[in-house]
Write a structure and sequence with these properties.
Chain lengths: ~110, ~110
């Protein structure tokens, strides 16, 4: 049972344009969400997070939006850069249980 | 400051054998979590240790076990290896037990033949 879903296995965008990565979840008890970025041969790196009490969190070029009613979150990268090319994982957690449930990831390719 | 270290980086074992993987956290980090990454299932949580105690456990069979030492280093063990255990095993560390923001190591690539 996939509680966190990233339905797009891959996404390709042009340098300078916006990248939008999507994530859906089924467990309404999730109340904290994170995005990780992973380069080949490296472990995932924390990127940005959002609590369920917010609907938007911004950090430089990265913005995460949360739509609780739709159980959907998205990561916007503006402007996209070739160095952003990586696999992006969405993760969720609930309550005092800090165990992270991950999606399967989306491979983002930013073309120069 | 040095990052999370995992050893070995690559390992090949045969079915039925057992394997032990090691994770050394960032200095000052006391929580260690283990994840299994496979192409079909993505990243799946195995277990979390803090102060030498297992705090959380994922849905994996008892063949998967772990422990944490007083210096916060952690090991995970898989006994009676199966072909399906072939995966990238990642450990993630954080300063406290109650932290969402974890720092991952590069992983150990285990291949079971």
């Amino acid at each position: 049972d996939q509680q966190v879903k990233q339905n797009s296995p891959s996404l390709s965008v042009q340098e300078g344009r916006i990248s939008i990565l999507n994530c859906d979840y089924t467990n309404s008890m999730f109340d904290y969400f994170l995005w990780y970025k992973k380069y080949p041969a490296e472990g995932p790196t924390f990127l940005i997070s959002i609590s369920s009490i917010k609907d938007k969190n911004e950090d430089g070029r990265f913005t995460v939006f949360l739509n609780k009613s739709a159980k959907h979150l998205s990561l916007h990268i503006v402007p996209s850069q070739p160095g952003d090319s990586a696999v992006y994982f969405c993760a969720a957690s609930r309550g005092s249980n800090y165990k992270l449930t991950f999606g399967k990831g989306t491979l983002l390719t930013v073309n120069p | 400051k040095a990052g999370v270290t995992q050893t070995p980086r690559y390992l090949i074992k045969t079915r039925g054998q057992q394997v032990t993987l090691s994770c050394s956290p960032i200095s000052g980090h006391r929580s260690v979590s283990w994840y299994q990454q496979t192409p079909g299932q993505g990243l799946q949580f195995l277990f979390e240790y803090f102060s030498e105690t297992q705090r959380n456990k994922g849905n994996f069979p008892g063949r998967f076990s772990g422990r944490q030492f007083s210096n916060s280093r952690s090991e995970m063990n898989v006994s009676t290896l199966e072909l399906g255990d072939s995966a990238l095993y990642l450990c993630a560390t954080s300063m406290t037990a109650n932290s969402y923001e974890q720092y991952f190591g590069p992983g150990t690539r285990l291949t079971v033949t």
